[in-house]
């Protein structure tokens, strides 16, 4: 059996394991595939042409696309970045030679979502600019673009609602990290704005269906909050305490007195 045929068989097993969620088996097969692909002269950095060059490059691209999805599923940011870096040359340098990939828009959108979660907005917009009109119009790409717009205008409720409308199953792994950050922001704003909040309203704001979910969130992130049968009582933020200690009226009176004295001197 040729190395290419062996690689195609391994890839079929690798993809099946990744789709089933058998992470350890998939990672083992990925390692074998990476070793095997080092024998392909058609891949970067050599890029040699040959009778099997197109098949080898297509196989390598397909392997790295599934590797990107696997890294997202595992929540491994470092592996995700490595696999994206290995995938890009295959997509950019040989785009005219390879058949279209059904995973292309999903991979591009997933990378945008990752950059958004990491708050790497300059890279986010740079990647978006490199895409063609058809790619930018795909739902997989529009999803992180809309999320970025929601975040820019402070529409946190729409960001939280987005978890019910993910265009691809692998998006939810990075999205959970973003939702956690957004919930923290909503919680901190609520703490600063209110002295207390009903349990029902807090669940609505944080998009939590069960009280137990809210209790776990508070216990983990804000143990100083007091939960009663029907409401949350917030502990005043330290900044508010300090501002309350400032003798505002006395300072205003002194400033007015100084202004009056200066006016008399002039």
Automatic annotation (TrEMBL):
Pfam families with a match to the protein in the record: CSN8_PSD8_EIF3K (PF10075)
Keywords: Proteasome
Cellular component GO terms, alphabetical: cytosol; nucleus; proteasome regulatory particle, lid subcomplex
Domain CSN8/PSMD8/EIF3K: from-to ranges: 103-238
InterPro entries noted in UniProt: 26S_Psome_Rpn12, CSN8_PSD8_EIF3K
BP GO annotations: proteasome-mediated ubiquitin-dependent protein catabolic process
Protein family membership: Belongs to the proteasome subunit S14 family.
Protein name per the record: CSN8/PSMD8/EIF3K domain-containing protein
Organism: Ectocarpus siliculosus (Brown alga)
């Amino acid at each position: 059996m040729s190395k290419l045929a062996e690689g195609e068989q391994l890839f079929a097993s690798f993809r099946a394991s990744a789709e089933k969620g058998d992470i350890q088996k998939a990672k083992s097969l990925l390692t074998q595939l990476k070793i095997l692909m080092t024998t392909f002269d058609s891949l970067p950095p050599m890029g040699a042409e040959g009778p099997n060059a197109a098949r080898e490059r297509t196989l390598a691209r397909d392997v790295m696309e599934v590797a990107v999805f696997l890294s997202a599923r595992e929540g491994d940011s470092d592996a995700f970045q490595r696999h994206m870096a290995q995938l890009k040359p295959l997509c950019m340098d040989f785009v005219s030679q390879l058949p279209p990939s059904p995973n292309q828009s999903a991979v591009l959108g997933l990378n945008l979502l990752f950059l958004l979660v990491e708050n790497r907005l300059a890279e986010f917009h740079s990647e978006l600019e490199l895409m063609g009109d058809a790619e930018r119009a795909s739902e997989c790409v529009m999803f992180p673009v809309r999320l970025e717009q929601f975040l820019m205008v402070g529409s946190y409720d729409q960001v939280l609602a987005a978890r019910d409308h993910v265009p691809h199953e692998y998006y939810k792994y990075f999205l959970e990290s973003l939702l956690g950050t957004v919930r923290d922001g909503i919680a901190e704003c609520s703490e600063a704005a209110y002295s207390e909040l009903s349990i029902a309203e807090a669940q609505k704001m944080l998009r939590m269906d069960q009280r137990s979910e809210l209790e776990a969130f508070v216990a983990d992130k804000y143990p100083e909050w007091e939960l009663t049968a029907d409401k949350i009582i917030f502990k005043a933020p330290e900044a508010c305490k300090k501002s309350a200690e400032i003798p505002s009226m006395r300072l205003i009176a002194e400033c007015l007195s100084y202004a009056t004295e200066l006016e008399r001197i002039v």
